[in-house]
Each structure stands twice: as C-alpha cells, then as structure tokens.
Amino acid sequence: MQLFLIEPAAYTAFNDEAALIEQCKEWNLLSEKASKAKTFFYKRNGLILACRLIGYVDKMTAVIELEDKRLHCIHPSYLKEMQASTYGQKSSVGAEDAAEPENAVPAVAATETSLEPPAKETREPEAPEAMKPQAEEPETAKQPTKGKTKKEKAPKLQLPEEKVKMTATVKQFTTVPNNFSESDDEVIIYEAVSIAEPATEIGEAWSSNSATMKKLELDIGDTITFEAKIIAKKLTRHPVPYKINNPSKIQKQES
Questions:
Q1: Which of 38, 61, 164, 209 has the fewest C-beta atoms lying within 10 Å of its C-beta?
Q2: Where are the extended beta strands (E) located within 32-184?
Q3: Any idea which of 30-34, 142-146, 182-186 has the lowest mean pLDDT?
Q4: Distance between CA atoms of residues 11 and 34, nearest Å
C-alpha cells in the first residue's frame, strides 16, 4: 500500500542521543525520567511501521525515518497518539491530514486557475467609413508612458545549509495561530537581517519567541548577533519569507 509522505525540504538533525531525548521530553514523547531513546511506530491505513526520530523542521514539525529510509514530516502530538495500542480502531485518516505541516499544498490548488471558463469573443459591427476616426498624425501619436517598464524579479537568495553568524534588529513582537494548541505561538519579527560570511543581506525574518529569547528581555529596536540556520519559511499571516532556527551564542549589542 502506497503511503502519502511529506519529505522535508530541509531540517535540523539531532547531534546526539542526548539532544534527541531532551527534545522528546519537550514533545511529551518520553517521560521526564527517561534516559534512553525508544523506537516509535508510524500507523496509517492499517500499516504499522517502526520509525525513529532523526530531527525537526521546527518546534511543531518532527522528522521521522521509516524502515525503508524514507523521511516524513509529522506533528509530535500526532506521533504520540500513534503509540497508543488502541490507535487506529477509529478512522483517523482525516486527523493526520489536519496535522501535516502548513507547506503541504493539495495538488488541486495548483490547477485551480486553469478551471476558469474562456472569455467569450465579441465582435463590434464595423462603423461606416465616414464615422471611423482619422488616423493620428505621426507627430501626435501617443508615446509610451515613461516609468512603466516591467520590473524584473529579484534573484532568489541562496541560503546556506549550515549554521552561520548573523545580525538582526527586533522589529515586532506578535503571535500566530497554532492549530494544535489552545494558545497562539509567540514570535519575533526582525528587520535588517544579514549573514556575516559570506556577506548577505536577508531583509526581514522571524523566529519563535522561545524561553531563551525571553531571558534577553529584548525590546523593539534592539540589535543582536547570533549563530543560527536560516530557511525559507513564510510566517503565517505576515509577509516575512524567512525563518531563523535555533539561534545560539546570542549577544545583545549595546546601544
């Protein structure tokens, strides 16, 4: 039976078992007293497949590796439900569809615009010769309007795959909806984001307002330096195209 899998475009792998165990405890996949990782099971369409956690795209999207080495993105809470012995006795196909990451776009959306009916062709009756407007003289012909040349799209940024040293300025604190929690997620939006080496201007980016970030007691306008991985992931309901993942070695610059 063919499984529908969502392979991650990019993800952060766990450095060692200690990092894996710590993240599993944060996701409530292991008890606080656990000292070893365990094998998890992915259940779908009557299948039960052993899998292991190998990393994450963000704090709401885990990455698992199935028995055949294929990778799949899944919400940690949904993976936890699959570990119950009673899971699958009721239909839960729709539940996983709701739990998949937001960047999974149904194929029908890509063809939606092609379903528009073609515009009907209309023909105007030809005007009598006497009523036709005279052709404009060459000197009075309208000239193209200046300043309306087609804008060229800016080249797509080539983002580094590893952690890099960065600088950013806090622009805004906000929240975004979390479909898997009763509370919204707190995030920080940055401006003037740049990579040190190679020198690259990013513009705007965002990150989770984690406990680590809150300890810095940041205010709007504060500039920070840090090391992090940056990926192309748009912030929900905000035109911010890039996300800063797992910033470390954070230092707030004195004003």
A1: 38
A2: 40-44, 47-58, 61-66, 71-74, 164-176
A3: 142-146
A4: 25
* 168 bridge partner residues: 224
* Cross-strand pairs, 166: 195, 226
Return d(Cα 192, Cα 187) in angstroms, integer. Answer: 17
What is the per-residue pLDDT across 135-168, written as a single tens digit (0 to 9) for each?
444 444 455 555 555 556 656 788 888 899 999 9
- Over residues 95-122, the mean pLDDT reads 38
- DSSP, residue by residue, 80-95: HHHTSTTTTSS--HHH
H-type alpha helices, 15-75: 17-26
226 phi and psi angles, rounded to 5 deg: -170, 175
Q: Please determine, for residue 241, whether its predicted confidence score (pLDDT) is greater than 60.
A: yes
Give me the amino acid identity at 186: E
* pLDDT(115) > 50: no
- Between CA 60 and CA 186 the distance in angstroms is 13
Q: Is 20 exposed, middle or buried (0-12, 13-18, 19+ CB in 10 A)?
A: buried
Name which residue leads in pLDDT, 180 or 168. Answer: 168
**Cα gap 25→38, rounded to integer Å:** 12
CA atoms within 13 A on the CB side of 181: 13
What does the alpha-carbon distance between residue 172 and residue 170 come to, in Å, rounded to a whole number? 6
Question: CA angle, corner 197, sides to 195 and 202, nearest 5?
Answer: 20
Of the candidates 232, 205, 158, 202, which has an alpha carbon nearest to the alpha carbon of residue 9? 232
